[in-house]
Amino acid sequence: MIHPTAIVSPDAQLEEGVEVGPYAIIGSDVKIGKNTIIGPHAFIDDYTHIGESCHIFQFCSIGAPPQDLKFGGEKTRVVIGNFNTIREFVTIHRSTAADIGVTIIGDHNLIMAYCHVAHNCKLGNRIIMSNAAALAGHVHIEDYAIVGPMTGVHQFCRIGGHCMIGGASAVVKDVPPYTLAQGNHAKLFGLNLIGLKRRNFSENTIRALKEAYRIIFRSDLILEAAVKKAQDEIENIPEVNHFIKFIQESERGFCR
């Protein structure tokens, strides 16, 4: 199901059920999984791998070389998982050879119109990037995070799972999981309680996360002492452990 006006490299591998719309361009060493739809005028550049049942809308550009002056033409890739929706005019760049050496997008993500995912980014699963959100290079986002419209994320930042970043924010430090952040520069405004309840987190888990947040961000203790207090006083719950570990491993610092 390839439109006669589309240009598909003979080296590209398209599996059963793939649709390629009018005037789309598919480069060499591209792999596209079953039942994925490539919309009109979309450009899938070399070395891009896209999974099954994705919908790439019109005028997307995926796999173009990174906007990094250190890039020397290395054979790097974009790898996109299954069941992703990538809307109009989204740009996703392949990686440089640094750190993970690949730009990765997981499964079941929604990337809305005009978003940008730069080189060496790593996105997990079921993430929502709202319209015109932009990620600089080397940004990592955990599962179920929501990035608001027109938000910019600085390079090397980490966005924790189940957090929500409000629109038109400037994120220059890590955003801990399960939190709400907004502003320029982004600050924390508590836990993402509505999101946690919608994802069926237990009352016990939410209560423990509230206590961990209170100790770390609202007590007068220095960070090291606050983390130790949270570890000592809060029961062993995976989400609390994740919250604390994310903060401990932060290299850029984190929103407060």
Task: List its salient traits.
256 residues; alpha/beta; UDP N-Acetylglucosamine Acyltransferase, domain 1; Udp N-acetylglucosamine O-acyltransferase, Domain 2; 2 domains; 10-stranded mixed β-sheet; 9-stranded parallel β-sheet; 4 helices
Describe the overall structure.
With 256 residues, the chain is α/β, with parallel strands linked by helices. The chain has 2 domains: 7-141, 3 Solenoid (UDP N-Acetylglucosamine Acyltransferase, domain 1); 196-248, Udp N-acetylglucosamine O-acyltransferase, Domain 2 (Up-down Bundle), CATH 1.20.1180.10. The chain contains 4 helices and 27 strands. The chain has a 10-stranded mixed beta sheet with strand order 3-6-9-12-15-18-21-24-26-27. Strand 26 (179-183) and strand 27 (186-191) form a beta hairpin. The protein is elongated.
Task: Give the number of DSSP strands.
Answer: 27
- Give the neighbour order of strands across the main sheet: 3-6-9-12-15-18-21-24-26-27
**CATH T-level topology of the largest domain:** UDP N-Acetylglucosamine Acyltransferase, domain 1
CATH superfamily of the largest domain: Hexapeptide repeat proteins
Q: What is the CATH architecture annotation of the largest domain?
A: 3 Solenoid
Overall form: elongated
Rg, Cα atoms, Å? 20 Å
Mean pLDDT: 98
| Euclidean distance between termini CA atoms | 51 Å
Largest sheet: 10 strands, mixed
